[in-house]
Every structure is written in C-alpha cells, then in structure tokens.
Amino acid sequence: MRADDTPLIRLEDYRPSDWLIDTVDLDINLHPQKTQVRALLGLRPNPAGRLGAPLILDGDELSLSGLRLDGLLIDESAYSATAQALTLHAPPQRRFTLTIDTQVDPSANTKLMGLYRSSRVYCTQCEADGFRRISYFLDRPDVMSIYSVRLEAAKLEAPVLLSNGNLVAAGEMAGGERHFAVWHDPHPKPAYLFALVGGALDHVRQDYVTADGRKVELAVHVEPGKAGRAGWAMDCLVRCMRWDERVFGRNYDLDVFNVVAVSDFNMGAMENKGLNIFNDKYVLADPQTATDGDYASIEAIIAHEYFHNWTGNRITCRDWFQLCLKEGLTVFRDQEFSADERSRPVKRIADVRTLRSTQFSEDAGPLAHPVRPRAYKEINNFYTPTVYEKGAEVIRMLKLLVGDDAFRAGMDLYFDRCDGTAATIEEFLACFAETSGKDLTQFARWYEQAGTPTIVASGRYDAAARTYTLDLAQTTAPTPGQPDKQPVVLPVALGLVGKAGDLPLVTGSAAYAGDGVIVLDQPSLSVAFSDVDEPPIPSLLRGFSAPARLELDLADADLLRLFSADSDSFNRWQALQSVASRALVSAGRSPGGHNALIATAGELAEALAGFLRVQAPADPAFAAQVLRLPVPADIAREIGRDVDPDAIHAAHRSLAAEIGLRLRPHLMELRERLGTSAAYRPDAASAGRRALRNEALGLIALADPEAGARLAEAQFAAADNLTDRLAALAAMTLVPGDAREALIARFAKTYAAEPLVLDKWLMAQALIAEAGTLDRVKGLMQHPAFSLGNPNRVRALIGGFAANLTQFNRPDGEGYAFVADMVVALDRTNPQVASRLLGSFKSWRMLEPARKALAEQKLAMVAQTPGLSRDVADIAERALA
Ligand code: ARG
Ligand code: ZN
C-alpha cells in the first residue's frame, strides 16, 4: 500500500458510532494454526448515531465462516464480508444478536497484533486495532461492552487459560485431553482492552487487600523455570497498588490481577483489564540477568500498566486522537510513583534526559506532531515520545499551574464524572478549570501545537534602584503543517541566587504567580523584582518546569556557582550540563576549537573535584548524573543544521577524556570508597553507588584506555551482578583491541542461555563508534542469539546500530543503506517493528549536505518499495514531506 492511497483519519470527522455492542460472548477454541472464534454480540442502535445506518464491523485479514442473526441463518444478500469488513446492509432497528464465526492462525501471525503465539504461549495484543484480527467488531474505543470469554485448549499445550476479569468456571472436556475456563469482566470496556493468554506458565502469587477492603489475588506468570525472576515485578505491583490508593485514592476493582510475560512483544507492555501482558524484558529480573536500569524500568512499567486501570480502563479514550488522555497522564503517574520510591531529583533528571533525547528530537524533525494529533493514517505510528513523554510534561505543568490541591481535586472530579466513559481532553481539562477557577483555554494549546518552545531570557540588575528585571520571550519554530505558532503557557519556576542562597522574590508583576513561578503566556514579558541587595544569578526553569529550551547567556563562572549553590537539584545538574553543552556545541560546529574545549574541561574538572570528594559519596545516584555529559545526539540537535556527527563525537570524546584525565585520582579513590563487598540489592541507594562507580569507570577508560581495560576486566571477573558486568563490557567497548574482543567472547559464553542478557551484548557492540561496527553488526545477524523474528533482538542489534550517531550516519551512506534494507525486510513480517526502525531517520534533515542527500536517497528507496505496510509507508511519506 502506498501511503498516499491511505485515507487520512481526522479528529474533526469524529462522529459517534451508529451501533453499540452491550455484550460480547466469546467462545475461543485455541489451536496453533486453526483457532476457532465464535463471537456473540448483543447489538442495539446508538441513540446518538444515525437511525437506519448499515452495520459495518471492522476486520483485518479475517475470513467469515458463519453468521447468524438472533440465532438464525441470514440470507447472503443481507450482508457482505471481506477481509476488512463485515457489513449488514439493513440491520433491524432494535436490539439483536449476531453470532460471528471466524478462524485464525496464531502461528502465522508475525505482526504480533491480534492473537499470536510467542514461544508456544498464546497471547493477544489488541491496542490499537488488533481485535479486528480476531473477530469482526466495532473496533473503536468508544464502543464499550461487557465481556464473557470461554477459552478451550489442549490441557498439555495450555494448562493455564486467562482472560480479563474474574474466573467463573473451569473444567475438563470429555476425553480429558482438552479443558476450558470461563472469564467474566463486569466492567464495560472497549475491544482494545480484551486479552487472552494460554500456555504452560509458572507463576508467583500474592494476596492483597485493597484500602477499601477487597481481597485480590495477584499473580505474575512467566515461562516455565523463570518464577524465580518474577519476585521483583510482584514487589513493584504491591507497592504501586498501595501508592495509587494513597496518592490518588484509587482502589483496584476485580478479584484477580494477572500479569503475564511473553518473549515476543511489539512494545513494552499492555494494560488489558485485569490481565496485563508484558514484554518479558519488563518483568523478569534477578541480579544475574537484569541491571539496575532494568529493575527501575520494571518498577516504572508495572506501575504504568497498573495505573492504566483507572486512567485508561475505567476512563478510556473517546477516539485515538485522545491517546494522550490515558498515556500522558499515566506516564505522569508512573513518574511520580518512581520519584516517591526513589530519589525525586534523580528521577527528574533521568526523565528529562529521555525527554530531550527522544521527544525534543522528534519535535525538531519531520515527524513532529502535537500531543493530540489532528490526523493520522496509521495510529500505531502515534505511540510516540510526544504523546507519552511530552503528554506527561503537560500534566506536570497543569499541576504546577493549578496547585497541588486543585490538581488532586480535579483528578477526583475527573474520576467521579467520567468513570465508565470514553472521554476527551476537553472533559479532562474542564475538571481542573472547575476546581482551580482558572481559565485553561490557552493552556489547552499544549495539546494542539507541535514543536519545542524556546525561552529567551536575560536579566538586568540596577544597583541604585535595587531591582532586578528579568526579560522573558518565547518562540516556537514551525513544524510540519504548522507554520505559525502561538504563545503557549510556560510556567517558569525560578530563583534569584545570591551569595548566601535564594533571595526573596518581591514583585508586583501580574506574571508572577507566587511560589517562585512566573507564568510566561505572552510572546514576551518583563518581571521586575525589588529589594534586591546584590546582583543575583538567575536560576530558571527549576525542576524543568516546562518542556522548553532555555537560552540564557550566563558566564561559565555563574553556571559553576549555580552548580555549587543552587537550592534546586535539577538546576545544579543542569548548570554543569550547560557548561559542557556550550563547549561541545561550539567544538562540534567548528572542529579545531580544541583549546576552548580543553579550557572547559579544566573548569569542569575543577568544579567536579571538590564535588566528588565532598558531596558525591552522600548522594551517588545524583553524582552519577552529574558526571554524565550531555549525549552527542543532544549536541547535534542544539547545533540543528549542517550537523557533522564525527565532529560532535570527536569533541565529546576529547572533553570526556580530558575530564577523566584530570579527575583520575579522584575517580579511582571514589571507586575504592564505593566498592562494596555486600551482596547485590536492587534498591535505589545501592544502584546509585554502582552507577557512580561505573560512570567513573567510563571516564577512566576514555582518559587512559589501558588502565580502563584493566579495571574493566577486573570488575567483570569480580562482579556478582549483571549491572557491574555490563558496565565493564561497555567500558571495554571504548578500547579497541584484543582484550575487548576477549571480553566480548567471554560475555557471550557466560550468558549463552540468556536471550535478554545477550540483547544487551548485541546492543553494546552495535553502539561502538568505529568504522568496523557495520560489519560487526552484519556478522552478529548470523549469531544464534539473533533473530529477525523477535522484536527485542531487532531493537537491540539493528535499533542499537541505528542509534549509533557516527556509524548510522557513516559518511559513505552504508549505515543508511543497511537500516533501510532492514526496514524493508522486516516490513514483510512485522510492520510495527519496521516502522519504528524507520523512525531512526527522523533527524536526517539537520545533517550536513552530503549525508543528508544519502539519507534522503535511502528514505526514497523505502518509500518506493512496492507492497509496503501502511505503517512504514506513512513514516516514509512524512519523513520525506
Ligand atoms: N497502551 C500500551 C501502554 O502504553 C501501549 C500499547 C501500544 N501498542 C501498539 N501496538 N501500538 O502501556
Ligand atoms: Zn500506557
């Protein structure tokens, strides 16, 4: 399919469904190739729809094997059935039932949408539109039904049979070979929240009693033999359930809650009602096979999917344009949970890093779109950092603007008013307008307008008048389809830092909202602070109070002062990042500015030396973030045009190496101090110590490759956990030579039976910034650990390579050629994985002319490939537009 032949679906064209489906009774006979599905739908005309309209049910690669209306066969002229639709031309204008028989082949389903088999486990993925691959249906989120599901399967093949809701019956079929289970979900839900699982699975179980007294049986199901790795996920589940009771007043609402890990999954996880299905990467953890980063991701994603039970399931989306209504809000909720469980400033820094590297880059390129898109061809291409991460930032700003109390009251009102409905952003915002008494009309622009705003700030101190005047202006660059931008509401949290800390903020300005927040909602404004006794250093956008770029021309000396004296941890971290970033941008722009870079390294090292000695040991997790420079991709985006990835990489390497060289004794001493003999524990404090030690290792390896290699080897040998081993491998990848190859081989041997660990091994190699990497990656495709059929393997090796700034962007274009070929190959089996991979081209327009031309050629090659999926065709078309 060519993208230009695909209809554009528009938000403004929304109309309610002409028909409703109150009940769905599914009877599913599981078989590896011939699964029989019988769906009994209880239909009625929608009073809000068009009277007398035909009934058009969605399908996708379906074939109809039987159809009855109110239990009776119907004349063939009364309906038509294709793979994409089942149409009843003149349905009765009353309640009636349809019995629809379809047959599907789960083993042949390589798209991993609908019903498929993953390592012999039957599972489903129905969001956004996978249910129509199981049965004909009104597959839209505003059609909500009560489901009863009877599953039948061979006992040996699928001893465990799960679906949404509560188990109401189970038993054996005559002959004893097959058995069945019946599940009932009392909560009406859209089809995208339907799920089933069947297979041989082990589990861990735990009883839970909700704050309002409901007994719930929790279970985490995993591949046989892996129950020992399910404990952490269960622990996270219990903690996030308590947290949602305490912080949002939300209780769980069924008698069972099941989590299932499967090894083939397109995304991270899915919030199906009462039956969350996960990519096993985000469930399985033990110290030998999961890193600290994995433990943290599992905590975040278990919470994310659980929190969807209220923000997504009890209240769902009217249409897919409202996706951020559930995703942005739920990301915000999971971020808050992690912040409460761990260190809030460190979590904020990590989230902002992710936001900048994924969302800012999306917003700066041809795939930019608003948090609530106005049109789409393929909805699966809109599960993006903009909808998720920027969507969460919008909620965070809303909370800051209305205040904690009105925010909580607004959430309560939203849960109250919209429970059981398919809602819109307008309905959501209305709750907060009501509880805060604030007009949120302009704020709503965050949902409509794409692009990252830039805040340009400057300050003037008048010693005679004892005033400090802050001038703030905002601009947003054009994005596709939006040439002219309007001002958005930017809450700018700030402080004025004096010699002895924050100065009092005294001003009569209407833009000052109190509590250290200026609301910048005009193209520009000035705020005058009075009674300012000394020239202050402005600390702006504290806590990253708005998802914007800040241009504020502070001298390095002032930034270094903020690094040591700002009361806001985020801005302490940011200050040092800003010093490094400015030097890297200028060196990346015009290579040869080496001396300036060395001077900056000297400044940074001096600031860090004291910090490492005195403060770092008290908060290692924060210190690890401080030691980590901005990533080269961030520098590329800051430069924005005519980007030369090699120049940026070289600058980045030499800055890090210089800092490492100067700090080496401190780093060694710190590593000694932090070295523990205690057994591995995944808690945030222990993880922070490992993070700092390993950050130090990386710097040492860049400064002195030989010393780094020796340290890495020793660390690998001594480590009792994957975090330290993987960090050793990563440090070693920075040092070309035999020792590196030996450690790579040893790692593979150690973890030969662990696909998820080998993914990290594949990725570490794919990220090596050397010309030999492309051949290495092609070679690794033949390794038994790799498979094009498994999304995790593809994301690790091919996705890892596409994220390798210098090698994906090789000057000879071979990196683009390789990734483009992989996109075309993958598209034949799994369009979602292919289109994600094609998204790696999103920053091609900012490259220098030669690379830009090569990238464009390869994008065009993809776009012109016959028989493309809608997913890939849509990305190719938008990337080239
Ligand atoms: N709702 C899921 C989550 O964020 C994501 C599912 C997306 N799946 C897809 N095929 N687009 O938790
Ligand atoms: Zn989600």
TrEMBL record:
Read off the InterPro entries from this record.
Aminopeptidase_N-like_N (IPR045357), Aminopeptidase_N-like_N_sf (IPR042097), PepN_Ig-like_sf (IPR038438), Peptidase_M1 (IPR001930), Peptidase_M1_dom (IPR014782), Peptidase_M1_pepN (IPR012779), Peptidase_M1_pepN_C (IPR024601), Peptidase_M1_pepN_C_sf (IPR037144)
Q: Which gene encodes it?
A: pepN
Peptidase M1 membrane alanine aminopeptidase domain residues are 232-445
Keywords assigned: Aminopeptidase, Hydrolase, Metal-binding, Metalloprotease, Protease, Zinc
User: What species was this sequence derived from?
Assistant: Bosea vaviloviae
User: What family does this belong to?
Assistant: Belongs to the peptidase M1 family.
Cofactor entry: Zn(2+)
Q: What's an example GO BP annotation here?
A: proteolysis
Specify the Aminopeptidase N-like N-terminal domain's residue ranges: 74-193
Catalytic activity annotation: Release of an N-terminal amino acid, Xaa-|-Yaa- from a peptide, amide or arylamide. Xaa is preferably Ala, but may be most amino acids including Pro (slow action). When a terminal hydrophobic residue is followed by a prolyl residue, the two may be released as an intact Xaa-Pro dipeptide
Top-level taxon of origin: Bacteria
Q: Recorded E.C. number(s)?
A: 3.4.11.2
**Transmembrane segment boundaries:** none
Peptidase M1 alanyl aminopeptidase C-terminal domain spans which residues?
556-881
Peptidase M1 alanyl aminopeptidase Ig-like fold domain: residues covered: 451-551
UniProt-recorded Gene Ontology molecular function terms: alanyl aminopeptidase activity; metallopeptidase activity; zinc ion binding
Q: What is this protein called?
A: Aminopeptidase N
Top EC class of this enzyme? hydrolase
